[in-house]
Amino acid sequence: FFLLLRAMASLPAPAADHQPVAPPRKRGRSSKEDPHFVERFFASSRLHFIGSWRRRYATLLAALPPPPPLPAPFPCTCSTSTVCVGHRIILLVDMDAFFAAVAVRENPRLKGKPVAVCWGGGNSAEVSSCTYEARALGVKKGMWLQQARRLCPSLVLAPYNFDAYHAAGESLLRALRNISPHTDAVSCDEMFVDVTHVISGNGDVDAASEALAIRVRSAVAEATGGLPCSVGVGPNRMLAKLAATRAKPPASGVHVITANGAIDALGDGVSARDLPGVGRSTAEALLKHFNATTVVDLRAISEARLAARFGPKIAKSLYLASRGCDPRAGAAISAGGGGGEGPNAEAAL
């Protein structure tokens, strides 16, 4: 909290090619000096923005009719056929460097430059988002600005633009719902879309899924004024998220993990931390008691041994997830609303 206050008080001089990080007039650092301090503080808070987005999202969904029932999944062909109830075609649309991309869209002169979005220009300011040009030089989200500037002296700072993020997030949501009503917004820049009904009956499911993902990227760019995204395709949320990670720049922007390819996708090098439900404490326990750090290591442990350490519920979840089966109740998308089968689903395909 106090580091953020210090960052707010250290405002840089306006640069020639971007807007100042904050208005140049001096402001009080407490409610005693500035009666509007608390209001301004929360208006400039990333956490406040996240909360306000969820409220806007809920309001938008409440105004829409409920979605139709989810279509039937494809028959199961995976290695956990005794528990698997079939697989779907799930997209995860994940915007690329969202805050930074919005800054570049709003100021095209920043295109191709290392840009970081943060509040304030003091050394204790934290990088919230940065372009891939900045990432190539070692700058990353969550880094203190002092370290980022050492790595990239030419780093250009851009301010938060919450109104633009709200607008882009709503445009993204509407574009995806135009393809499928079964869309679930995890945040303003990350959304799951169940397109099982769009793909079903179109011959080569894997090829049709990839083709649709490519068209979704184009539709998102058109709806958001050119903002880039990566699209992961998988038979459940877990694998769609893993696929989206592999689609990120410098990759092509689309990655597909098929139901039959789940085990290969969870092969050597994939950390157990990438699985749902594996946080720091679980990962530490896996390392301490089983010397397991990867999904391959986890897959070699019997469900009975996992249950002896973690209990039956967590053991079942770990056992299934390591085999590409998403055991969460929400693995199939049930949130969203309205719109029948998606007015542009056929055209998009």
**DSSP, total strands:** 8
- Alpha-carbon distance between the termini? 48 Å
Structural class: alpha/beta
Rough outline:
globular
Helix content: 40-55%
Spatial arrangement of strands, main beta sheet: 5-6-1-7-8
* CA-atom Rg in angstroms: 22 Å
The arrangement of helices and strands along the chain is: HHHEHEEHHEHEEHHEHEHHHHHH
Percent of residues in β-strands = 5-15%
Mean pLDDT: 82
Main sheet record: 5 strands, mixed
Q: Catalogue the unreliable spans.
A: 1-26, 335-349
Kindly describe this structure.
This protein is α/β, with parallel strands linked by helices and 349 residues long. Mean pLDDT is 82; it is low at 1-26 and 335-349. It has 16 helices and eight strands. The strands form two sheets. Strands 5-6-1-7-8 form a five-stranded mixed beta sheet. The protein has a three-stranded mixed beta sheet with strand order 3-2-4.
Any chance you could write out the topology, listing elements then pairs?
Elements: H1 2-9, H2 37-43, H3 46-62, E1 90-95, H4 98-106, E2 115-117, E3 129-130, H5 132-135, H6 145-151, E4 156-158, H7 162-177, E5 183-187, E6 190-194, H8 196-199, H9 205-223, E7 229-234, H10 237-247, E8 254-256, H11 262-265, H12 280-290, H13 295-299, H14 303-310, H15 312-321, H16 345-348
Parallel strand pairs: 2-4, 7-8
Antiparallel strand pairs: 1-6, 1-7, 2-3, 5-6
Helix pairs in contact: 7-9, 14-15
